[in-house]
């Protein structure tokens, strides 16, 4: 939608918090722990969808006509607000829910223990990535959405309900962020500021890949992940900035990212 | 044509501040000094914003200026506030000159994100460098002025007046610059860059020049903040610091060179009050303020003032 959404990080954080507290409550009641995975998903949906609906309708909608940089600032403001709202609701103490993580155990790869949960995460990422690609390129709604992004005015003239597409896209995007947070929650301690690091990282990913490109995002994420692991392994002192270094190099060579789409010139 | 009173107003404000300064409480002097430091950074940001460029990485130069000032004191024993500002500004401007060759090619979101990446690289470097105090940063020697060391009760005042003087000089120079052909290109670049090129001007060169000026100003601001606070840490290069500067720029508006300083002062006041009222939720208040401003006052607080002037 040509929106650089800083609030995305907040949705990630909120998803993680909601998943952590709901799963903890679920397990405390003594319900079957195997169903806690479903609880993670439900938690993300329950918090993300209403929040995203309200934010899109009430705040973003009147501002679409403005500059994309203005939208960036609006989402930054929302991000600041939500950061503190999270602190108000959940406090500043860390949350742990290791059960879903520990439950699956681990298996041996070349003599090293590897947690099965991480494998499940990879599968989930493939599933959602593939699903999104199918939605965008294989369905009527997805193709219409691409048209709406390319030119909202012409789409409107063709009888497409542009507002509804914007709303659906924003909600879906936010939901994915919250799901990512919910799935990550069992592997980390959920603390305030969780979203800050993630948002800058994911910007690096999409910029490396090219804004608005799905394969770009996948390749960018893989690059960032591999480069980061390599640097942790070989040169731990550069771990923090190596990602930004990669991003700067990619942008220097390909100014619009690896998988950038062609842009029309307006004179 | 309406006469421009900017120069008169700025000079009057400076004289008034210098005279009233000794009666101000110490905490107010501190807030004002920091506001001048931030104002200098935002003044540079104003130049870029006028050309439609939002840099999410001015913290890079702010931090460079601060660390240059700190390094002067730590390794060479120099603590003169003017030397620190000059060196901080020069280091930052030189860095901006080099980076400008890369950045001047980018516009819009890419300019913002690339500048953000560059400032985060500096943050990563500083966090890992033990010689410069890693995440803790280090303290800075108390300032002197031209080799003189003012008495303890006068240090704050002396730093404040020096800050105001430098800010005044910078504001006047930028005001002049905005009236030169190069300065006037800014709105044209924002409007339609291809037309600028058709006219025979180089948009890339104009952006490069603006970027270097903005970098130098941010460096001076960083050095000033370093001496005023007496402590520096890598957090100065973190992207949220850049966010703060953009917040001030939006708050103030880009209508006039005085706006960044007024904006920085108001920001300092909001920040202090919000922190005082609710230490845990000051971000919430700031975010709400930013949101309201963008929705209701897209041209910043300065637009209220200029609307009033136009009516009278």
Describe the overall structure.
The complex is a heterodimer of chains A (267) and B (312). Chain A has helices spanning 7-28, 36-60, 68-90, 99-103, 116-138, 140-150, 152-157, 162-184, 194-209, 214-234, 239-253; strands spanning 106-109, 112-115. A two-stranded antiparallel sheet of chain A has the order 1-2. Chain A has 267 residues and is mainly alpha-helical. The radius of gyration of chain A is 20 Å and the shape is globular. Chain A folds into 2 domains: 7-192, no CATH class; 196-260. In chain A, helix 1 packs across helix 8 (162-184). Chain B is an all-alpha fold and 312 residues long. Chain B has one domain. Chain B has 13 helices and 2 strands, in the order αααααβααααβαααα. Chain B has helices at 6-20, 26-50, 58-76, 81-103, 108-128, 155-179, 181-191, 193-198, 203-229, 239-252, 259-277, 282-296, 302-311; strands spanning 138-139, 231-232. A two-stranded antiparallel sheet of chain B has the order 1-2. In chain B, helix 3 crosses helix 4 (81-103), helix 4 (81-103) packs antiparallel against helix 9 (203-229) and helix 11 (259-277) runs antiparallel to helix 12 (282-296). Chain B starts with 5 loop residues before the first helix and ends with a helix. The mean pLDDT of chain B is 82. The chains are: A mainly alpha (267), B mainly alpha (312). Chain A binds chain B through residues 4, 59, 62-63, 66, 68-70, 72-74, 76-81, 83-85, 87-88, 92, 196, 200, 203-204, 207, 211, 237-242, 244-245, 247-248, 251-252, 255-256, 265-267, and chain B through 52, 54, 102, 105-106, 108-110, 112-114, 116-118, 120-125, 127-128, 192, 194-195, 239-240, 243, 246, 250, 280-284, 286-288, 290-291, 294-295, 298.
């Amino acid at each position: 939608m040509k929106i650089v959404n800083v609030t995305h990080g907040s949705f990630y954080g909120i998803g993680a918090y909601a998943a952590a507290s709901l799963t903890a409550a679920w397990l405390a009641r003594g319900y079957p722990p195997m169903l806690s995975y479903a609880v993670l998903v439900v938690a993300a949906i329950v918090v993300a969808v209403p929040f995203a609906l309200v934010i899109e309708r009430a705040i973003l909608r009147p501002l679409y006509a403005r500059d994309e940089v203005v939208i960036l600032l609006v989402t930054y403001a929302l991000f600041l607000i939500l950061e503190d709202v999270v602190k108000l609701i959940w406090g500043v103490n860390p949350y742990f829910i290791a059960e879903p993580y520990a439950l699956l155990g681990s298996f041996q790869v070349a003599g090293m223990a590897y947690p099965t949960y991480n494998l499940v995460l990879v599968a989930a990422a493939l599933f959602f990535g593939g699903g999104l690609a199918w939605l965008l390129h294989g369905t009527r709604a997805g193709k219409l959405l691409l048209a709406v992004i390319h030119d909202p005015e012409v789409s409107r003239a063709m009888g497409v309900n542009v507002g509804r597409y914007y709303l659906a896209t924003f909600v879906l995007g936010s939901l994915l962020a919250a799901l990512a947070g919910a799935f990550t929650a069992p592997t980390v301690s959920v603390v305030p500021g969780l979203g800050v690091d993630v948002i800058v990282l994911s910007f690096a990913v999409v910029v490396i890949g090219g804004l608005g490109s799905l394969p770009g995002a996948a390749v960018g994420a893989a690059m960032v992940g591999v480069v980061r692991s390599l640097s942790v392994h070989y040169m731990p002192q550069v771990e923090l900035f190596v990602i930004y270094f990669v991003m700067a190099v990619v942008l220097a060579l390909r100014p619009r990212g690896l998988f950038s789409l062609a842009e029309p010139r307006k004179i | 044509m309406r006469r421009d009173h900017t120069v008169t107003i700025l000079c009057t404000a400076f004289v008034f501040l210098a005279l009233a300064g000794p009666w101000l409480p110490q905490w107010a002097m501190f807030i004002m000094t920091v506001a001048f430091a931030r104002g200098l950074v935002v003044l540079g940001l104003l130049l870029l914003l006028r050309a439609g460029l939002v840099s999410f990485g001015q913290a890079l130069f702010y931090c460079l200026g601060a660390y240059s000032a700190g390094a002067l004191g730590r390794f060479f024993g120099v603590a003169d506030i003017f030397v620190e500002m000059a060196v901080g500004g020069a280091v930052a401007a030189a860095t901006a000159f080099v980076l400008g060759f890369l950045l001047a090619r980018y516009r819009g979101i890419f300019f913002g994100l690339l500048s953000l990446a560059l400032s985060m690289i500096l943050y990563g470097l500083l966090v890992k460098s033990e010689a410069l105090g890693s995440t803790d940063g280090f303290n800075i020697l108390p300032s002197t002025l031209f080799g003189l060391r003012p008495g303890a009760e006068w240090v704050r005042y002396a730093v404040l007046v020096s800050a105001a003087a430098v800010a005044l000089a910078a504001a006047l120079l930028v005001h002049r610059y905005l009236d030169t052909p190069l300065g006037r290109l800014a709105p044209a670049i924002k409007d339609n860059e291809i037309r600028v090129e058709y006219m025979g001007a180089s948009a890339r060169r104009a952006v490069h020049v603006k970027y270097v000026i903005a970098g130098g100003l941010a460096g001076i601001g960083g050095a000033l903040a370093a001496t005023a606070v007496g402590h520096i840490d890598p957090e100065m290069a973190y992207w949220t610091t850049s966010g703060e500067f953009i917040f001030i720029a939006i708050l103030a508006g880009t209508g006039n060179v005085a706006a960044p300083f007024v904006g920085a002062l108001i920001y300092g006041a909001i920040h202090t009050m919000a922190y005082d009222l609710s230490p845990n939720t000051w971000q919430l208040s700031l975010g709400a303020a930013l949101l309201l401003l963008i929705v209701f006052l897209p041209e910043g607080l300065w637009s209220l003032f200029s609307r009033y002037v136009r009516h009278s």
